[in-house]
Amino acid sequence: MISNNMYNGINLIGKSLDASLLRHNVISENIANEDTPGYKRKDVKFEGLLQEALLSNNNSSKIGFNTMTPQVVVDKKNLSYRLDGNNVNIDTEMTELTKNQIKFNVLVDQVSNNFSRIKTVLSR
């Protein structure tokens, strides 16, 4: 019998991919609003939620991946040095976009490897 625990890793990667896609959209929105007066950059919070869930629950089979959703938050701590109140820094956003793309590619590779292993096991 196949255990549901076998799919926890895939479910986790799936949620992480969802967060990465959302982060890409949020960063793109930040870049598009670089010249909008008063615009405050947004960010996605997911890794902290995931870490809390993993640390608070020793039994990984009971972690509710379905209830974990990435959250878009307004970055109020990032001070604006501009007179118009906009706190978007294009260099920061491009760096974050690159980091996010690398994370996304790693996650896609992990999903591919997981399914390849499952396919190998099932074909034997």
From TrEMBL:
GO terms for biological process: bacterial-type flagellum-dependent swarming motility. Keywords: Bacterial flagellum, Cell projection, Cilium, Flagellum. InterPro entries: Flag_bb_rod_N (IPR001444), FlgB (IPR006300). The keyword Transmembrane does not apply. Pfam families: Flg_bb_rod (PF00460). It is found in: Bacterial flagellum basal body. Residues 23-40 form the Flagellar basal body rod protein N-terminal domain. GO terms for cellular component: bacterial-type flagellum basal body, rod. Structural component of flagellum, the bacterial motility apparatus. Part of the rod structure of flagellar basal body. Belongs to the flagella basal body rod proteins family. NCBIfam families: FlgB. The basal body constitutes a major portion of the flagellar organelle and consists of a number of rings mounted on a central rod. This is Flagellar basal body rod protein FlgB. It comes from Vallitalea longa.
